[in-house]
Amino acid sequence: MNDDTPAEERLAAILRAADPLPPEAELRGELRQALGRTRAAVRRVASAARSGPAAVYGTVEAPWGEVHVAVTERGLVAIELRTSGEAFAEQLAERLGGAAVPDQPGLYAPVRAMLRRAQAELREYLAGARTAFDLPLDLRDVSTFDRAVLEGARRLGFGQMSSYGRLAARIGRPRAARAVGGALGRNPIPIVIPCHRILAADGSLGGYGGGLDLKRALLRLEGVPLPYAFG
Amino acid sequence: MSSLLPFERVLETHGAEIYRFLRRHVADPTDTADLHQETFLRAYRAYGRLEPGANVRAWLYRIAANLVRDARRRSAVRGGAATDGPDPIAGAASDPHRRVEANELRAAVRAGLAGLPWRQRTAVAARVFEGLDYATIAAMLDCSEVTARQHVSQGLRRLRASLAPPLEVPA
Question: Of the listed A139, A167, A195, A214, which one is catalytic?
Answer without folding.
Answer: A195
